[in-house]
Amino acid sequence: MRKFLIALLYFILPVVIASYGLDVFISKNLLKSNTSPGNYNAWNDIYKGQVNADVVIYGSSRASMQIDPHILEDSLKLKVYNFGMLGHNFLTQYLRHIEYLKYNPQPKQIIMCVDYFSFEKREDLYESDQFLPYMLWNFNIWRYAKSYDGFSLLDHVVPLVRYVGKATAKKKAFSMAFMKSNMKPLKYKGFKSTDKPWDKTMEEARLKRGIYTISNDTNTVNLFYQFLQECEEQNIKVTLVYTPEYFEEKKLVLNRDETFKFFKQVSTQYNNTFLNYVDDSICYKKEYFYNSLHLNKKGVDLFSKKLAHDLKKLDVVEK
Q1: What domains lie within the chain, and their CATH numbers?
Q2: How far is 24 from 136, CA to CA, in rounded Å?
Q3: What gap in Å lies between CA 31 and CA 50, rounded to an integer?
Q4: CB atoms inside a 10 Å sphere around CB 274
Q5: Quick check: helix, strand or coil at residue 296?
Q6: Cβ–Cβ < 8 Å for 57, 187
Q7: What CA–CA distance (Å, rounded) separates 247 from 279?
Q8: d(CA 105, CA 96)
Q9: Are the beta carbons of 225 and 238 closer than 8 angstroms?
Q10: Which residues sit opposite 124 in a β-bridge?
Q11: Nearest to 185 by CA among 50, 290, 293, 76
Q12: To which H or E segment does residue 110 belong?
């Protein structure tokens, strides 16, 4: 029996070592890519401890694509980074928050972009490939990603398992291994605006779906309370911001008043500011949008300047 176990160990050990080595090779080369709409760039900056920001921006695509950190930096004279995540609600936004604080100095201010979808949880992990290079033995990612379809515990603890069926990611990793590593980042400090014309197809689909009711995930709402409490204890100021949306979007959400009531309530409870731009003049001009939920470049420039002005006027951000 002892000889059998020793023989088994001699067989398994090289396989484990080789698997781990190949896992490291794939992961290190994959994170060099500026694909996955620039998400690797933001995660890399976090895990390398390269984020030295006074102000950070959290939220979904309505943060990452609508607030230009360069404009805020010029106006506020502070260092700004946009950590908005396309297609993700607050659950994974909080994951990014705790990983950011784990490896980088804490900010003075968090601009928390909120909307109808902040606490509505989807079943799948959107753009899940962005997590691949950082998942192995990272139990923070496991903790906040396990409730989504897509990854199992084995994906987080056994080398190479998570890359099974990920042909595109593996192909990208091997191609990056033989390319010069001077690719220009897709985003500037997490941000990239979109200069598109009005998307009729997307809007027709939204209108066809008709009026809907937002269903909030209780665990995510509770996590948001926890986040605000932690920021208060860590002396990090939080400003809630509802970014502009095209005015016709209002007609499609049945319980929108409950949403705004909640954001007003929590901002008061934790002595934070809530900047609500849902009725701003920008919202009534289609020329500033490429769909009802997202500003185009012209709209982004205008709104970012307006937000910077309001932050300065209200003395929300400390220097």
Answers
A1: 2-313 (3.40.50.1110)
A2: 9
A3: 15
A4: 18
A5: coil
A6: no
A7: 8
A8: 14
A9: no
A10: 149
A11: 50
A12: strand 109-113
Tens digits of pLDDT across the chain (319 residues): 676 666 656 666 776 778 889 999 999 999 888 766 557 889 999 999 999 999 999 999 999 999 999 999 999 999 999 999 999 999 999 999 999 999 999 999 999 999 999 999 999 999 999 999 999 999 999 999 999 998 999 999 999 999 999 999 999 999 888 876 666 777 788 888 888 888 877 667 677 777 888 899 999 999 999 999 999 999 999 999 999 999 988 888 888 889 999 999 999 999 999 999 999 999 999 999 999 899 999 999 999 999 999 999 887 666 6
Helices (H), 33-147: 39-47, 61-64, 69-76, 90-103, 139-145
Question: Which among 112, 179, 303 has a CA at the least distance from the CA of 294?
Answer: 303
pTM comes to 0.92
Match 């951000």 to its residue by tokens. Answer: 317
Q: In the structure encoding, which two tokens stand for residue 101, read together? A: 């604080």
CB count within 10 Å of CB 74 equals: 14
CA dist 106 and 51 (Å) reads 9
Nearest to 183 by CA among 18, 11, 33: 33
Angstrom distance (rounded) from CA 18 to CA 5: 20
Q: DSSP H helical segments within 104-240, as ranges?
A: 139-145, 153-157, 167-177, 200-209, 218-233
CB atoms within 10 A of CB 188: 15
Q: What six digits make up the tokens of 134?
A: 């950082």
